[in-house]
UniProtKB/TrEMBL annotation:
It comes from the Bacteria. Gene3D superfamilies: MFS general substrate transporter like domains. SUPFAM superfamilies: MFS general substrate transporter. The lineage of its organism: Bacteria, Bacillati, Actinomycetota, Actinomycetes, Micrococcales. It comes from Microbacterium enclense. Residues 19-424 form the Major facilitator superfamily (MFS) profile domain. This is Predicted arabinose efflux permease, MFS family. The chain crosses the membrane at residues 21-46, 52-73, 85-105, 111-132, 144-171, 177-197, 231-254, 260-279, 299-319, 331-350, 371-391, 397-418. It is found in: Cell inner membrane.
Length: 434
């Protein structure tokens, strides 16, 4: 059976471009380490504060610096050698993670330090991500962009599936210092992937970083209704359908199992993303990618709403032991929660494949860094706003309220917006128009 007819993932980007293959491997290993730190910091802050709101504020605190860094990083990627930009930003990410490890080993970690270093890490990482996304279309032909996006889904699946589960185990049995240190070790692979790239200066007219460069990108976005709407749809999904900030409290007080449950729930999302990428062959053959985004986000909304129903069942005492703590867990409900979260991860990954392909195919190279910067702000900023929504609503109501009502809002808003955007629904991958 040919690659194009197979249901399995298309691996041709790895065999066609050795540079892309090295970058993909390095990014995957570094991403796995990054997830160790993300989950460890969440658990660390919850241990120090016993506050779900404090956990949600980690993401919120990094929102503005991440937005600024993402936008400026995109401008840098459109003005200078993209390999150099990515390497310098990776150095900052590495240094912030190393300092986390040093503080944990010395016993000097505080909530303030955890917040500050998380902010620095996320800001620098947004520059790395924006620049790498702008690099990809220069390494492989356009017809392989969906396959490259599916490989990115494998990366996300591996790092988020294995990372949180490993983080939960490491934190529980080895402590925070070892967890942060392992991230430092794994991140060295990213430097190998970036260092081996050729020089990649932007093609076309170069605009120096600054307000005019940013205005130029915004003007392009105003003339790009398909790109603009996919941003809006992703913001809706991530704002109202991102319950990750609730996981520590769910594991501690609602479903039991503590840090291990937190890791299992987070890993379930990644498992869905991984499996959907593994069987992504048909995704690359779909031409109406706007319609694919709409359907995928609607499935995402349904699965997040179902997760809220599982938490409601736990709140009502259904399928739940009388006592839940780190040693006593509601296993049946944890399994149900993991299953619906796996569906959400699969749906989000399918949407991400189409969104990434549309971005990389329809946006010209000279503008790609700035648009990728905005794209990263949307992708990374949406979950942080979602963390604020989930943490605040859970604090004033209950843990099941944010996902249940969020899923309903996603379905209603996405259906309404796409209905009035026929160009988006009929977007043709063979004639990519922004």
């Amino acid at each position: 059976m040919s690659v194009r007819q197979s249901a399995f993932i298309d691996l041709r980007p790895l065999t066609t471009s050795p540079a892309f293959a090295r970058l993909w491997i390095g990014s995957t290993l570094a991403g796995l380490g990054g997830q160790l730190t993300v989950v460890a910091v969440m658990l660390h802050v919850f241990e120090l504060t016993q506050s779900t709101f404090a956990v949600s504020m980690i993401a919120v605190a990094g929102l503005l610096p991440m937005i600024v860094a993402g936008l400026y990083g995109g401008m840098l990627a459109d003005a200078f050698d993209r390999r150099t930009v990515a390497l310098l930003a990776a150095v900052v990410t590495f240094a912030s993670t190393a300092l986390l490890a040093v503080l944990a080993w010395s016993g000097l970690e505080t909530v303030g330090w955890l917040f500050v270093l998380s902010v620095v890490n996320s800001a620098a990482n947004s520059i790395v991500m924006a620049t790498k996304s702008a690099i990809t279309p220069r390494l492989i032909p356009r017809d392989l962009l969906p396959a490259a996006a599916a490989l990115q889904g494998v990366t996300v699946g591996i790092m988020v599936m294995a990372g949180p589960a490993l983080a939960g185990v490491l934190v529980a049995f080895a402590g925070y210092a070892w967890t942060y240190s392992l991230d430092v070790l794994l991140m060295t692979s990213l430097f190998l992937g970036l260092w081996s790239l050729p020089r990649l200066r932007p093609e076309g007219e170069v605009v120096r970083p600054g307000l005019e460069s940013l205005r130029d990108g915004i003007r392009f976005l105003k003339r790009a209704p398909n790109i603009r709407l996919q941003y809006i749809l992703d913001i809706i999904a991530m704002t109202f359908g991102q319950p990750v900030a609730l996981f520590p409290a769910i594991g501690a007080v609602l479903l039991g199992g503590g840090a291990i449950t937190t890791g299992v729930l987070t890993a379930a999302v990644a498992a869905g993303a991984f499996l959907s990428s593994l069987f992504s062959g048909p995704i690359g053959r779909v031409r109406r990618q706007g319609l694919g985004i709409e359907r995928a986000i609607q499935v995402y909304g349904l699965s997040i709403g179902a997760f809220g129903l599982v938490l409601l069942a736990a709140t009502l005492g259904w399928l739940r032991p009388d006592i839940v703590d780190e040693s006593h867990a509601a296993v049946a409900l944890i399994v149900l929660a993991a299953l619906v979260l796996a569906v959400s991860g699969a749906a989000d990954n399918v949407s991400a494949i189409y969104r990434s392909t549309m971005m990389q195919a329809a946006v010209p190279d000279a503008m790609r860094g700035r648009l990728q910067g905005i794209f990263i702000v949307v992708v990374a900023g949406g979950p942080r706003v979602g963390a604020l929504y989930a943490g605040t609503l859970a604090t004033i109501a209950a843990l099941w309220v944010p996902p249940l009502f969020g899923g309903i809002l996603i379905l209603g808003l996405v259906g309404t917006l796409v209905r009035f955007s026929p160009r988006f629904r009929h977007y043709d991958a063979l004639d990519p128009q922004p």
